[in-house]
Design a protein that fits this description.
The structure is a homodimer. By secondary structure, chain A is α/β, with parallel strands linked by helices. In chain A, 33% of the residues lie in helices and 24% in strands. Chain A contains eleven helices and 25 strands. In chain A, strand 15 and strand 16 form a beta hairpin. In chain A, helix 1 runs parallel beside helix 8 and helix 5 packs across helix 11. The radius of gyration of chain A is 22 Å and the shape is globular. Chains A and B meet through strand 5, helix 5, helix 10 and helix 11 of A and strand 5, helix 5, helix 10 and helix 11 of B.
C-alpha cells in the first residue's frame, strides 16, 4: 500500500516517536497543543525549577526537516471507524488509511470529576504553570496575612498519590519551600510549611522494591514531608481536603493518583478497561482493525507478566517504534511478531542529590541514582539547546538553591478562569 | 530622621534602583506582581525569542540579602497624603515617613479605552505571553484554514505606533514570521504575511535623528514591513482596524502608541499633565511634600530643554539613585541640588544585526549598532544567570533562526479571559 495516509492522534512520546520513524508515507500528526511536552520533568516547571520552554518543543520545529509529516493543531472529537475518517472540532473530517491513536490520559478522580478544578493534576504546561502560580500566590498571601498581623496558620500543600509523580512533587515542593522560598519570606518560619503526601496503599512508590520505597520514604521524611499511608481522600474543598474523615486545611491540593484514558477512545467502539484504556492485541491493534493502532497511556497492552504495561514514557516510545516498523514494512497481521516491552528500569528523584533507581537486579539510591536520573533525562530531551539549558539550570540550582522560574504572571484571574476551563474540558 | 519608614510603590527601574541604594532605613517595596521586569526586552518574549524567566526576576530574590528591604506583593489603591499612609486592595493601611511613587504607566488609547482588549499594549509579562499566544494561534488557524481548502487570506498584524517599541516589535514580528515561522508552515507563503506599522507622524522613531529614522525605515521595509506614516487609527475591531477611514482586516493588533500614567496618581491630589503624569519639582517631589517623590513614567520632570523627560529606563534609574541619595542624607529641601538627567544616548534594534544608535554626536546603524545594543542590554540585566541565558538565546537564534519559546499553552480560553481581565483592570 504505497502513498497511504497515516494519521497520528497525539504528539506525546508514542505519537512523536512513530512520526519520526515513518519516513516514507504521508503522515498527519495532530495535537491539541502546538508542542511535544517532556512530561517526566513537568513537575519541575510546576515547582519553578525549569521554564516551560526548557521541556517543550513546537512540533512544527521538530518536524521542520521531515517533509512527509504535516503537523495540525486541532482537537479530534471522534473517530469514525466505519468511514475510516476522524472528525475535528473546527476543520472538516479527514480520512485515513492507517491510524495511530495516542491521545494520552488525564487524571482519574474516581467518579468525583468535580474535584479536578480544586485538585488539578499535572499533565499539561497549563497545569504546571497554574500549579506554580497557586504555590507562589499561597506564599505571598501567607506573607501578607502575617505582615498584617494575622494568625500563624500553617501553609499546607497536599499531594494525593504516592507514585513517582507524587513523590517527585512532594520532594520538589519541600525543597523549594524550605531551601529556596524560606529565605525570601522572613515572616514565614520553616515549621509553618507542611507538605503532606497521601497514599492509599501501604507504601509509596509501589512500583519499586519495598527496600527502595522505604529509602524514598526516609529521604522524604528527612526533607520534612509528612507521609500518610493507607489513607484515602474522601472529599476535596477549595480550602482543604478530607482524609479518612479528618479535614485538613490546605493552600493547595495536587492530584497525582491514577489515570483515566482520553474520552476520545470511546468513539472507537471497542473494548476498554476500567481506566478507559483500549484493549489491544499483541500487535497493538484493536480487534478487526489491523491498521488502527493504540499506544501509550491510551492502550491496555498485556505485558509478559500478564499485567497491563505501565503508563511510562519508555513503553510509549518502544510502542511507537514497533508500530512504525510494522507500517513501513506493510507487515500483514499474520506475520507480525508481538510487541515486547524491554524494561530498562525505573527512576524516581526525591530531591537534590536524592533519587531511587531500579534497573533489573540493580537497586540503588542517593547521589548515584540521582546522577543517573539526571543523565537519563538530559539524554531524552530533544535537541542540544534544551539539554544544555536544563543542565545549566540544574547546575545553577544545585549550587545556589535559587530556582530560575519563580514568576507570577499578573493574573490570579487566569487561575480561576482556567480552572473553569479545565473543568469544562472534563465534562 | 533615623529609622524612618520608606515605602516604595512599584518595582520597576526607578523603584528597584531606589530600594537597592537605600541601605539603612526600613524600606517596604510594593508591587502588584512578584517580579521586576526588564521591559526593554519584553517584545522579545512577545515574539517568542526569549522566555519570561529570562527577563524577569522575583523581587524577593533580588533583595534576599538586603535585610532592610521588605517586599510586599499587593495592589495600592490610594495614597492618603493627609494621614501619610497608603491603602491596599487587601492588607490594612500602612503609614510612611517617606514615599517614593513609581507605579509606571499603561498605554493611552486617546479616550478609547474600549480598544485595549482588542489592541493590547506591551507592559507586563501577561501582555507579552498573550501577544505570543495570539500570534502563534493566528498562524495555526491560518494553516488549518488552508489545509481545509479555505481562501488564501493574508495574515496581517498591525502595530500602532512608530516609536522604539513599535519599531522593535515590527522588526521582530517580520523576522520571526518570515525566517522562523515560514519554514514551519508549508501551507503559508511569505507574501501571505503582512506586518503593518502605523505611525501618526511624518516619520518613525521621531526621537531619533531624521537620518537614523530614514535608515530604520529602509531596514524595516527591506524586511517586508509595510510602513504607513501620517496615518491615524480611527477604530479597532476584533477582526481588524480602521486606518484613515479604510478598514484593514488583521489577525492581531498591537498598541504601541503613547502612555498614560497609573490612575493611582490621581489620589495624590496634585497637578498632573495631559498624560496623567505628576508634575514634580527639580528634586522630584510634589508641591508641599518634601518627602513624597515621584519617579519614572509617573513623573513629569522637566529636562534641560524645558521638555518633560522621556519615559525611558535610564531616566527612571538615575532618578532612583538621586532620590535614594537625598533620603540617605536627609537633605533638607533647600539644600537639594536639582535632578539632572545624563543622556547616554538612545538605541533601537530592528532585527538580526540591524539597529540604530544615537549617542551624543555619534549616529550609527547596522551591525555595529546592533552589537552595541546587545552589549548594553545584556549589561543591564540582573545577575550572571540571565545575562548568560539571554546571550546564549540570542546567539542560538542568530545562528539557527529557531526562536526558543514558541509554545502555546493549551488555553486559548485564557486569551479571552485575560482580555476581559485587562479590560476590567482598565475601568
Amino acid at each position: 500500500m504505497a502513498g497511504k495516509r497515516i494519521i497520528i492522534i497525539g504528539g506525546g512520546f508514542g505519537g512523536l516517536t512513530a512520526a519520526r520513524a515513518l519516513r516514507r508515507d504521508d503522515v498527519v500528526l495532530i495535537d491539541r497543543t502546538n508542542h511535544h511536552l517532556f512530561q517526566p520533568l513537568l513537575y519541575q516547571v510546576a515547582t519553578a525549577a525549569l521554564s516551560p520552554s526548557d521541556i517543550a518543543w513546537p512540533l512544527r520545529t521538530v518536524f521542520r526537516s521531515q517533509r512527509n509529516v504535516r503537523v495540525l493543531m486541532e482537537e479530534v472529537i471522534a473517530i469514525d471507524r466505519a468511514v475510516r475518517s476522524i472528525r475535528f472540532r473546527e476543520s472538516p473530517p479527514m480520512s485515513f488509511d492507517v491510524l495511530i491513536v495516542a491521545p494520552g490520559s488525564r487524571h482519574a478522580y474516581f467518579g468525583h470529576d468535580e474535584w479536578e478544578p480544586l485538585a488539578p493534576g499535572l499533565k499539561t504546561l497549563t497545569d504546571a504553570v497554574l500549579m506554580r502560580e497557586k504555590m507562589l500566590l499561597a506564599f505571598e498571601e501567607a506573607d501578607r496575612r502575617r505582615a498584617a498581623g494575622g494568625p500563624d496558620e500553617q501553609l499546607t500543600f497536599v499531594i494525593v498519590g504516592g507514585g513517582p509523580t507524587g513523590v517527585e512533587l512532594a520532594g520538589a515542593l519541600a525543597e523549594i519551600g524550605r531551601k529556596a522560598m524560606g529565605p525570601d519570606f522572613p515572616t514565614l518560619r520553616l515549621e509553618d510549611l507542611c507538605i503532606l503526601l497521601v497514599e492509599g496503599g501501604p507504601r509509596i512508590l509501589p512500583g519499586f522494591s519495598a527496600e527502595l520505597s522505604a529509602k524514598a520514604d526516609a529521604a522524604l521524611s528527612g526533607m520534612g514531608v509528612t507521609i500518610r499511608l493507607n489513607s484515602l481522600v474522601s472529599g476535596v474543598r477549595e480550602d482543604g481536603v478530607m482524609i479518612d474523615q479528618e479535614f485538613v486545611p490546605s493552600a493547595g491540593i495536587i492530584w497525582a493518583a491514577g489515570n483515566k484514558a482520553s474520552p476520545l477512545l470511546e468513539t472507537l467502539g471497542t473494548a476498554q478497561d476500567g481506566a478507559g484504556r483500549v484493549k489491544v492485541g499483541p500487535d497493538l491493534t484493536i480487534p478487526g482493525e489491523p491498521w488502527v493502532f493504540v499506544l501509550g497511556d491510551a492502550a491496555n497492552c498485556t505485558g509478559e507478566d500478564g499485567k497491563p504495561l505501565p503508563g511510562l514514557a519508555p513503553v510509549a516510545i518502544q510502542q511507537g517504534r514497533y508500530v512504525a516498523d510494522v507500517i513501513q514494512h506493510d507487515t500483514p497481521p499474520a506475520e507480525r511478531r508481538p510487541f515486547v516491552y524491554v524494561d530498562r528500569g525505573m527512576l524516581a528523584t526525591i530531591g537534590r542529590a536524592k533519587a531511587v533507581a531500579q534497573i533489573g537486579r540493580l537497586h540503588v539510591s542517593g547521589l548515584f541514582a540521582w546522577l543517573l536520573w539526571c543523565i537519563v533525562h538530559i539524554f531524552f530531551l530533544i535537541g542540544v539547546r534544551s539539554r544544555f539549558r536544563v543542565m545549566s539550570e540544574w547546575l545553577w540550582y544545585y549550587v545556589t538553591f535559587k530556582p530560575g522560574a519563580r514568576l507570577l504572571f499578573e493574573q490570579p484571574a487566569i487561575v480561576h478562569n482556567d480552572r473553569a476551563t479545565m473543568h469544562r474540558s472534563n465534562e
